[in-house]
User: What shape does this take?
Amino acid sequence: MTQPNLHRHVRLLGLSGSIRKNSTNTAILTTLADAIKDKAVMSVFKLNEIPLYNADYEDAARPATVIALRDAIEASDGIVVCSPEYNHGIPGVLKNALDWASRPALESPLKAKPTLIMTSSHLHTGGARAQHQIRETLSAALCRVVSRSEVVIADSNHKVKDDRLVDDAALSSALEAIDDLLQEIRLVGQDSR
Assistant: This one.
């Protein structure tokens, strides 16, 4: 696992659970990336081209997009997952990407990676019902999931305009969560010394 150099900006990787063109989850990640530029650099990895998981291609024959995803995870100091909720659970595109990244189990770039979970939805529940499944998947992949209150952005269709999170309360809550992730990354750096 890459250890953070505390004398440079922390590198975060955003993973959106939606591949929709005007995804509010992707918009939230890009808004956060702009808002935290003074303390971290966050890139958003698009999951659009990740093929369906197939264990036959888990090792040497991994698809190029899967290699790129794993490399991006490895190069990051921490991950921010922002996802919708589909049928009360984790979207297939996100689960599929995490399955690819988690294999083989003990050699996964997700292992011990500080990870923050956020959900957003047009509904008043804000994707809260997906949080448990996302957390279970990340925990099974041996991620170091940030332990904190859930970040849930309800009614996101009213809080995201022109691909930006414009609701001050929601943005403030998400930024507090990012600060908790950065603290977790600092702890990982201290633990590795």
User: Anything to note?
Assistant: The beta strands are 10-16, 40-45, 78-83, 114-120, 144-145, 151-153, 160-161, 164-165. The chain has one domain: 10-191. Residues 78 and 108 are 14 Å apart (CA to CA).
